[in-house]
Design goal:
2 copies of one chain form a homodimer.
Chain A: H1 34-54, H2 61-68, H3 72-79, H4 82-93, H5 105-121, H6 123-136, H7 140-166, H8 176-194, H9 200-215
The structure holds a DNA duplex (30 and 30 nucleotides).
Chain lengths: ~230, ~230
DNA sequence: GTACTAACGGAACTACGGTTCCATTAAGAC
DNA sequence: GTCTTAATGGAACCGTAGTTCCGTTAGTAC
């Protein structure tokens, strides 16, 4: 959100074979320094603000351009659509922040639950997440960026579950990523589906439930050997 | 979705005190018979189809009117906005369908998990749910309709958990609604956030995890007496 | 059956999100 | 410093989602 670097680097080369000139790049790739970088940072910042205020549907790029102090032509040229901009914003949000370590699995799960709850319950962040998730339901690129975002967040916390397996606290064969996901799931379900409050107790329950289920072997990989990989 | 009856009956009388004429009702309330009912049914059906095909953002009411064989003026007059129409659609979806009863809590939770998984994994239904949830992030009325929808679905399955408490299978003081919600949560988390596949194993895990957590007392109401009610 | 009018629907209209054009600014190479 | 041209931004433009107008259709009362 603060600094900026080239986005959309994972573009799969070309959508249709033999389109336009082969070497033509997106704007912003040849001279990514000074102004270009400032524009990108300002626009992503403004996009986050606008999303948090209006939500996904009521959003138009002209408003974002105005907030960013940038011409709307620039925004349309660089990102094209609201969902395209959000995909870039998600890539920017995906950079990991160091997690706390409490030494015990239950303690780490509680810490994770509190962090997720606090993020989703925060007015600005909560709206931002809801908006981004809504956008992902409308656009494949945004959805892919969202999945990468959660992959990186889950991977960041997974070691605490893996260590618990290694020291015998959780059963052998436990899908450790799934343990971490289990902490977030009930909190997101409240945020998006039921609208139940995201209070401290909901976070505590989420961590306790994930821990109890993991100990009972609910996340041990079963039958098929298909789901070995992280998935 | 098939039959139709007056929607928006839970309208809180008037938004602003002293607006327009006091007795003027929404169109469709004075002569709700024949044509009006057919129009409503056709439009809701078409809205579901269009949502499943295009998603929430790419939707316009003129297209829905065309599919329904109805004038677009009528759609705008009756529902006004996409989110307003979706709120009505959700009210229509909220009517409960009888659930299966297997006699054991784990069996019922498994049945619920399979039902939810099948619904969300179905191409049409899955898109429909994602679209409706996306719409709910953008509009308060739609969000309220969505919450009512899940309230009714959860309430439909809650008895199996309550009976389990009564016969001592689950601890006294367990929040039985929360047990049911715990089954859906990981499946919705996959659908909306991580994009992980909604396969049979995910449903099995969801039920197993909810059961294990409930047995371990993770859903027992704690500390504060504030959360006695269903919430 | 007739009368009354709620509700519908086609067509013209409006407003605004999104695009195109081109002059201006400044990044990067030397 | 100069030169080249990538990138920006204002202004005019366009297409379509959403509105208004008003004549037509058909529920409901009698």
């Amino acid at each position: 959100m603060t600094t900026a670097q080239p986005p959309e680097t994972e573009e799969p080369d070309s959508e249709e074979p033999g389109a336009e000139e082969p070497g033509t790049d997106e704007p912003g790739t040849v001279r990514p320094g000074g102004r270009t970088a400032r524009v990108r940072a300002a626009v992503l910042r403004a996009a986050g603000d606008a999303l948090a205020e209006h939500g996904f549907a009521q959003l138009d790029l002209a408003d974002i351009a105005r907030r960013a102090g940038v011409g709307k032509t620039t925004v349309y040229r660089r990102w094209g659509t609201v969902t395209g901009l959000l995909a870039d914003l998600l890539a920017d949000m995906a950079r990991t922040s160091p997690r706390t370590e409490t030494g015990s699995l239950l303690g780490d799960l509680e810490a994770n639950a509190r962090l997720v709850r606090r993020t989703l319950a925060d007015p600005r962040q909560g709206r931002l997440f809801r908006a981004v998730i809504a956008a992902a339901t409308c656009d494949e690129r945004t959805a892919a960026a969202l999945h990468r975002f959660y992959e990186s967040r889950i991977a960041e916390w997974e070691p605490c579950a893996r260590q618990a397996v290694e020291r015998g606290e959780l059963p052998q064969g436990t899908d450790t990523h799934e343990v971490i996901r289990a902490v977030s799931a009930p909190l997101y379900y409240r945020l998006l589906a039921t609208g139940a409050p995201l209070d401290e107790e909901s976070a505590h329950r989420a961590a306790q439930a994930a821990y109890a289920a993991a100990c009972a072997g609910a996340y041990v990989r079963e039958h098929t050997g298909v789901y070995e990989a992280q998935g």
